[in-house]
Specification:
nine-stranded mixed β-sheet; Carbamate kinase; disordered N terminus; 9 strands; alpha/beta; 10 helices; single chain
């Protein structure tokens, strides 16, 4: 195959999914800094999203807020759980606005919808409006979780994915997928290619919280866990290539 034929084949590749929900942790925006927003990292993530958006894929996004404030951490230090969770929700709004800014610099129309009303910053979450934005090829970022304490952004991602009829949740991490143990601490940890929902729950694999996994299991919504720090992985996942670990019901 010549180089021109190879390029032609790549350009004609069709996405395996029409509408997806991308789940990003707040820590992913901080990169090695561990806190705050790393400008270079968020620019790189925006470019990865832009590349997929150019393929005609409808993209919804849920961001965590752990790079700014983690509700559970606040609770562990004696703070009221509901109060600390609301603070965590506000952190997700900050991250959402930062990502929106980067995406719009790449000429992608982007809407932030918040589960907690704050009209000066974001639209209120309205399912039908969110779906309409997606149909118009706008990226929609869902901020402030579910708007309720005691629920994680993983659960919010599962809920929003089902509400907008996403075909899959793609959870971006800083490792290559789901392992039997933490690969950064255990060099012998096994990388799984596929798992069933119950396997994740029974093995206690820390992929998403049990509520999020159960929601996906009940509605047969697949989850792909992949490494976003490797350039091009999001596009490869969209094209249906073998990237990361897929959690689904056994066929």
């Amino acid at each position: 195959m010549t180089a021109s034929e190879s390029t032609s084949k790549k350009s004609s590749a069709k996405p395996a999914y029409k509408r997806v929900l991308l789940k990003l942790s707040g820590e992913a925006l901080a990169a090695d800094k561990g806190f705050g927003i790393n400008t270079e990292t968020i620019e790189r993530i925006a470019k990865e999203i832009h590349e997929v958006h150019q393929m005609g894929v409808e993209i919804a996004i849920v961001l965590g807020g752990g790079n700014i404030f983690r509700g559970i951490a606040g609770t562990a230090k004696g703070m009221d759980r509901a109060t600390s969770d609301y603070m965590g929700m506000l952190a997700t709004v900050i991250n959402s606005l930062a990502l929106q800014d980067q995406l719009e610099k790449l000429d992608i129309y982007t809407r932030v919808q918040s589960a907690i009303e704050m009209h000066q910053l974001a639209e209120p979450y309205i399912r039908r409006r969110a779906v309409r934005h997606l149909e118009k090829q706008r990226v929609v970022i869902f901020a402030a979780g579910t708007g309720n304490p005691y629920f994680t952004t993983d659960t919010a991602a599962s809920l929003r994915a089902m509400e907008v009829n996403a075909e899959i949740i793609m959870k971006a991490t800083q490792v290559d997928g789901i392992y039997s143990d933490d690969p950064r601490k255990n060099a012998d940890a096994e990388l799984y290619e596929t798992l069933e929902y119950l396997d994740v729950l029974k093995k206690g694999l820390k992929v998403m919280d049990s509520t999020a996994i159960s929601l996906c299991m009940d509605h047969d919504l697949p989850i792909l866990v992949f490494n976003l720090s490797k350039s091009g992985n999001f596009k490869r996942a969209i094209l249906g290539e073998k990237v990361g670990t897929t959690v689904r019901r056994e066929r």
